[in-house]
Write the structure tokens for this entry.
Amino acid sequence: MATKLTPLHDRILVRRVDEGETVRGGIIIPDSAKEKPQEGVVIAAGRGKTNEKGETFPLAVKEGDRILFGKYAGNEIKLDGEEFLIMREEEVLGILSAAGKSTSDAKTEKAGARR
């Protein structure tokens, strides 16, 4: 039986994305020497943050987004034998997008783009 978890408020459920096992030089890194990846995919997201007036503000991240987060962000949990992270949206450092995809017009400047 698969367990479905829906995070509350401004929390998100993230599955870490595994990095490749070899580096550019072809050296294989053993599991004990690897650091946990700081990149993941959003599996589920809460409804959003609520203020004192009861207004709910939707989250900037949504299911399926590939994100970057800090090394010590979130709380690790295990569901059905698989490891996940639950973290607040504010712990997300950024949303990754593929270079070939354009979410808006081509005139939008991206971080690190040359002028």
Notes: Residues 21 and 30 are 8 Å apart (CA to CA). The mean pLDDT is 77.
